[in-house]
Amino acid sequence: MIDTRIFIVAIGIIVALGCAVPSKEALDEAAKPVSREFLLGPEDVLEVTVWRNQDLSRTVVVRPDGKISLPLIGDVQASGLTSAQVAAKIAARLTEFKENPNVSVSIKEVNSYFIYVMGEVLRPGKYPIKSYATVLQGVSLAGGFTIYASKNSMQVNRTVMNGDGKEIQLRIPVPYNALVSGKGGVEDFVLKSGDTIVVP
């Protein structure tokens, strides 16, 4: 959780810069560390290997519903899990047909991590990327700001789940001057897949 004093200072700086005051939820979301282990998502290509069983080993693509299909066991949830967790799920399901199955899952292609950059940047659009990127790196991918950009009104829109399991939209203000100086209460945080950077 963010210290109350830091929150108050952050609000003061952001108001002084002429930006929208972020909610505490938005600041908390921006401060969350990103998992060191890559979580699978739709369109990722996986290599499933079942030791000593070529018929069950195959290359599969994670479907839009987050699942993969395999012989004998059918659909297996993959989206939101690590490759090791998916391997464990497959092995557990295969125990009905094979004693002590040894399963490994490796990522052949990462296609599920992408961000959007909109507004006053040189090349707005969707950017599929192969490794984690921060807000400033996302702007850089889009060619940087145009001369009309209101840099200090920039924000990141992120869809998250609330306590009731419903999707809500968070708007995280990321004023450029504060990001560069490190004095704005919000650091240059890592983007999550599906985040949209908006530059008015």
Tell me about this structure.
The chain is of the alpha+beta class. It has 2 domains: 4-36 and 113-199, Outer membrane lipoprotein wza domain like (Outer membrane lipoprotein wza fold like, Roll); 45-109, wza like domain (wza like fold). It is 23% helix and 26% strand. The protein has 5 helices and 10 strands. The strands form 3 sheets. The protein has a 5-stranded mixed beta sheet, with helices on one face. A 3-stranded antiparallel beta sheet has the order 2-1-5. The chain has a two-stranded antiparallel ribbon with strand order 3-4. The chain is elongated and about 60 Å long. The two termini are 29 Å apart. Residues 1-21 have low confidence and may be disordered.
Structural class: alpha+beta
Q: Write the CATH homologous superfamily of the largest domain.
A: Outer membrane lipoprotein wza domain like
Mean pLDDT: 84
- Determine Rg (CA atoms, Å): 21 Å
CATH architect. name of the largest domain: Roll
Helix and strand layout, with pairings?
Layout: H1 4-16, H2 24-31, E1 45-50, E2 58-61, E3 67-70, E4 74-77, H3 83-94, E5 103-109, E6 114-119, E7 125-128, H4 135-141, E8 155-161, E9 167-173, H5 176-181, E10 196-199
Parallel strand pairs: 6-10
Antiparallel strand pairs: 1-2, 1-5, 3-4, 6-7, 8-9, 8-10
Tell me briefly what this model is.
The protein contains 5 helices and 10 strands. It is of the alpha+beta class.
List keywords for this structure.
5 helices; alpha+beta; 23% helix; wza like fold; 3-stranded antiparallel sheet; 2 domains; Outer membrane lipoprotein wza fold like; 200 residues; 5-stranded mixed sheet
